[in-house]
Amino acid sequence: MTSRFVTLSDYCILEYMMTPLGDPAPNIVNSDYYFVKNTNVDLYQIYNIDADAAATKNARGSSVVPIGDSRLVRVDLTSNPIYTAYDPNIIESSVSPSLSSALVMDTMRFHFASGFNFTEVENIVVGARGKLNNLTQIQLANVLINAASYQELLTFNTRPLFLANTIYDKYVDIKIPTLAYLDADFSTFGSASFEHVVTEGTGLITGAPITVSLAEVSYEDYYADNGETYELYRVVSYFEGSVPQTNEFDSLGAVIQEATDGDYIEFFATWNGAFPDQLISTLDAQTSGNDWIFVHQLQVYEQIGSNLVPSGNFLVYQEDNFDVPLSYRPILKEAGFAVSMSIDYTLRLLNKNTGDQIIRTGSMSLFNPNKYGKNLMKLALAEAPQSLKVYNKIVQKNIDVTNLFTGKKLAPVAAPAASTIVYVPTTVNVSVPTFYKQANIRISQKNALLKATDGSTELIFGQGELILPIDPTDNFIKISVYEADTLNPGIQKPANLNNNSTFSLNFGMDAKYSYSSLKDAAFENPSQGQIAFRIPKDQSKKILDLTDQMVYISLIAEDGTETLLYTGTWLPSNEYASILKAADAAKTALVNDPYATIAGLQKSIQTLQAENDKLKAATQTGKAYATSTKKEKVSNINSLSAM
């Protein structure tokens, strides 16, 4: 079944649901009919017996018959006699039930806008008619809807239709025979067919459009000469449109589905099973004034208990890239309680210049849709993940994004002119506080091969001295930048980095892996020289596969200029720990037994030299400082062994 939409008034849109020949699941209704021959207006008319009113809404008691001069009279079953029995120009007869059994039906769904309740317009008549081969017309339906009858005929839509910024929340379904199937029976069975009887053998024009209509009518009493008063309705306003029996847009489809590569919805138009870019090109080329686009509208509902609650409405105009699916991620307000989620998809093929439009509809449903809630799903772990926390401090005075930091910074000296300042190099240092892993907390362990000699808990490193341990889990790294006090050059103070710049932590000479600072006030305070970085677990494992062990920090100005701030070396945390362990073992041996045997001291020397060889495999940048420090310790041990 395919739908065609026709706008009949500002409060009513007709959705004509047609059953094409060959439909695998046609809508079949067993019903009995009356055939009316009306010579008042040279018109044939059909409607159902009243026992079938619930099935078709096209029963005799709901119908009106025209009598000329824009007047219609209701076939009121309480009248005695009913009007069709009174008017001599109208002949009503029953159609044999054998001819009308198992008729294939079309559905005319008249959608009414929200707020329309038959107060401003109290009476309307909706209908449809076809054309015979002799150009006589047959009224397939002519149903009166008014304030008294609409509650019996109307159905309130639990999933309202959204079109052209209007909500249509109620409708009337009227079923009429499918003309294409009547024609096929007429061709096959001739005088033994339903069409032969209701057209008196003339037959319908094959494939002729079906005229649909809406008339606003006013009520007045009609006093007949038989003493009976009938309900007469006079047409005040009349609207009509046409629906083709063969639809040139039958191959236009609307697809909505969950994406296969993520938690979101894909929706798009199709033409002959492919994307519709060729259709748009063909339509635009037909007439110079054509400008066809697609309008996509999604209405989201979530089922709370037994109620369908509107949860979102999304509208998008697609004017190009017709070969690309569109995407949407709904947000359910009650995802934790929703039993299911459904999305109604309305696709409109619209000519922007003429207003012509073809509408297709689709829908999808999902059960347990909590992944589309306000918050993404979180998994509670029995034990918190173990993360490496590293706190580093970098020193740089008066950060200037126009200079290239190479481990030196420029300080002002005497100038040849009062308005000129010349700079000379000074040193940039970086400080590292206590290093520890959450899995095995040891507060006394320092994140350094060198130990602070002044008793402080952190050691400030100059350019290239820092060795940064990387753990195969998540890594949180905090950096503090220091600068020398101008009044007391031997004292380091936090540098003010609050200059609207951003910072990048880079691994490898070519910055194969790069991470921006967090910009989170809970972890950073640039005005105090504090910046922080986070390396996710999956990225940490990739870094550990690198052979280039250079690490550097760069400063990126607002204009995109990148300046080198600090360079150092990174190592896997297990190798870093073994270096610290060997250094501590050597120190313990010297403290406990300064006159240890030469053999014992030589063993310590061999251990330190083995660790020294590991450092040589690392990138040379930033490694020389740590290596020279270890060599100093080796030299001290050699001196002791020579005594």
Structure description:
With 643 residues, this protein is α+β, with helices and mostly antiparallel strands. The protein folds into 4 domains: 2-243, no CATH class; 252-372, Immunoglobulin-like; 388-572, no CATH class; 575-642. The protein has 11 helices and 37 strands. A 9-stranded mixed sheet has the order 6-7-15-14-10-11-5-4-8. Strands 1, 2, 3, 9, 12 and 13 form a 6-stranded antiparallel sheet that branches. Strands 23, 26, 27, 28, 30 and 35 form a 6-stranded mixed sheet that branches. α9 (573-592) packs antiparallel against α10 and α10 (598-616) packs antiparallel against α11 (624-642). The chain is elongated and about 130 Å long. The chain starts with a strand and ends with a helix. Mean pLDDT is 78; it is low at 395-457.
What is the fold's blueprint, element by element?
Blueprint: E1 2-7, E2 12-18, E3 28-29, E4 33-38, E5 43-48, H1 53-56, E6 64-68, E7 71-74, H2 83-86, E8 90-94, H3 97-100, E9 103-113, E10 123-131, E11 137-146, H4 150-153, E12 155-163, E13 166-177, H5 179-189, H6 194-198, E14 210-223, E15 229-243, E16 252-258, E17 265-271, H7 277-286, E18 292-304, E19 307-318, E20 326-328, E21 340-351, E22 357-367, E23 388-394, E24 408-413, E25 422-427, E26 429-432, E27 436-437, E28 459-462, E29 467-470, E30 475-480, E31 482-484, E32 492-494, E33 502-507, E34 513-516, E35 530-535, H8 537-544, E36 550-556, E37 562-572, H9 573-592, H10 598-616, H11 624-642
Parallel strand pairs: 5-11, 23-30, 29-37
Antiparallel strand pairs: 1-2, 2-9, 3-9, 4-5, 4-8, 6-7, 7-15, 9-13, 10-11, 10-14, 12-13, 14-15, 16-17, 17-20, 18-19, 18-21, 21-22, 23-26, 23-27, 24-25, 26-28, 30-35, 31-32, 33-34, 33-36, 36-37
Helix pairs in contact: 9-10, 10-11
